[in-house]
What we know:
CATH architecture of the largest domain: 2-Layer Sandwich
CATH topology of the largest domain: Ribosomal Protein S5, domain 2
Order of helices and strands: EEEEEHEHEEEEHHHH
Number of domains: 2
Strand content: 15-25%
Radius of gyration: 22 Å
Distance between the termini: 41 Å
Largest sheet: 6 strands, mixed
Number of strands: 10
CATH class of the largest domain: Alpha Beta
Helix content: 25-40%
CATH superfamily of the largest domain: GHMP Kinase, N-terminal domain
Amino acid sequence: MAIVTKNVEVADKRLSIEAGRVAEQANGAVVIRQGDSVVLSTAVMSKEPREGIDFFPLTCDYEEKLYAAGKIPGAFMRREGRPSEAAIIASRLTDRPLRPLFPDGFRLDVQVVSTVLSVDQENDPTILSINGASTALVISDIPFGGPVGAVRMGHLDGHLVVNPPMSRINESELDLVVAGTADAILMVEAGAKGVSEQVVQDALEMAHDAIKQVCAGQLELQREVGKPKREFTPPQYPAQIVEVVSEYLALRLDQAAYIQDKSAREGALDDLRKRTIAELGERFPEHADILGKL
């Protein structure tokens, strides 16, 4: 594959996305950079579904490397330690906006890894991880309904700032991570120091405008280097069973889902699932194996 680079201007900063230089064995891979912060994002998919699972096995890893900051591990073995709390949070932030965009019923293993190659202490590698992971999936043959873009919003000196310098993030009255598609916002992660609702609303609107630019850059790269998507046929369930389950859960699900206490809510939802399978399984014994998958 020829090396192709796309540059996107996001709030007067250049976001550079490069494909074709490294990790060509992966289904999709890009090197994404802003300033001197650089992240390698790769996406790999298994050839066959894993047996005996009823969930989508997506793994998103964010790997910090001390060499990215010019440091050497201080331990005797000179090896990287376990993931830091910040790395775990970055992995989750990468996972959340991506997971809903895979097809329903998809059961092939997908692993997305973002490896931090360089950090300049000004440009946030977490945001690069989300954008890089999405781009790797978009240009791959993995079925994916992206692209997804992400930005971090700050409020400095009375003004909203897209992707504020990390050196000033502690000064900001708002720390807002927003991810979404060109059509809608999918994820919001926020911390704030008493800012008004209007400031948050303006920040979300400004963030979505920037996200649209990032998504457009990913689509441009896809048009040049993207692989044909692997065909996927979602599982088909009898219409009668789907209708019966929907009617059964119509009122019961709302009652359980709106319980405020988390432990009580999860317990109620688990009980409802077991009760649904048990009661409808008696009515439709020939479809008992399907009920747990709906």
